[in-house]
């Protein structure tokens, strides 16, 4: 009985301690309201980084979403994913109605954030006057873990994010496979990292001829399980 009472008191102490920390932080955060927009955003980003260091989930990029000036967020040069104009309008409408529910996945180099996933979310944030005005020229972003910063790993991450939901042009996919082969990736590693089977990797390596035959066709094994109409609008709904 005494042990149960001690455990209850310990629980109350922990809860009280947590409440005290939250109250202290909230008091400090009121000071943010006195800052101009850019200083306020910078301070919030720094606070989130500091907080993430103490999070049990700090190995997950989504644990620390930052707001980055849109002119510092750049597209990569290898993404084979494409979205038709009607779906881009749908994405813009989704963001206008529901807000940004997914950050842009990026890696950071020389104070520039290169997009790994979220190219079209990034375009809407830059090109839609209504969205850009609402988010004040910033974009929500997470940064990948340091262990995934090699270009081959970044390319693989982009394909994994895109493959099940987007449109892939065969020649672009073939170029990525060839680039990974130049980086001494084995066929087995390419298949595993890009979600392909060995025959698909082999076909994509035969870029001369075969890729040309299918250059005008959409290429995604994920579409075998559903219809085009069901998938077409699902690239990035925010």
Summarize the helices and strands and which ones pair or pack.
Elements: H1 2-29, H2 37-52, E1 66-69, E2 73-74, E3 81-82, H3 85-98, E4 104-109, E5 112-117, H4 119-127, H5 129-134, E6 138-143, H6 151-163, E7 167-168, H7 170-182, H8 187-194, H9 198-205, H10 207-213, H11 228-232
Parallel strand pairs: 2-5, 4-6
Antiparallel strand pairs: 1-6, 3-7, 4-5
Helix pairs in contact: 3-4, 7-9, 8-9
Structure description:
It is a single chain. The termini are far apart. The chain contains eleven helices and seven strands. The radius of gyration is 22 Å and the shape is globular. It is an alpha/beta fold and 238 residues long. The chain has helices at residues 2-29, 37-52, 85-98, 119-127, 129-134, 151-163, 170-182, 187-194, 198-205, 207-213, 228-232; strands spanning 66-69, 73-74, 81-82, 104-109, 112-117, 138-143, 167-168. Helix 3 (85-98) crosses helix 4 (119-127), helix 7 crosses helix 9 and helix 8 packs across helix 9. Strand 4 (104-109) and strand 5 (112-117) form a beta hairpin. The model is unreliable at 208-238 (pLDDT under 50). Among the domains are: 1-34; 36-148, Conserved hypothetical protein from pyrococcus furiosus pfu- 392566-001, ParB domain (Alpha-Beta Complex). The strands form two sheets. Strands 1-6-4-5-2 form a five-stranded mixed beta sheet. Strands 3-7 form a two-stranded antiparallel sheet.
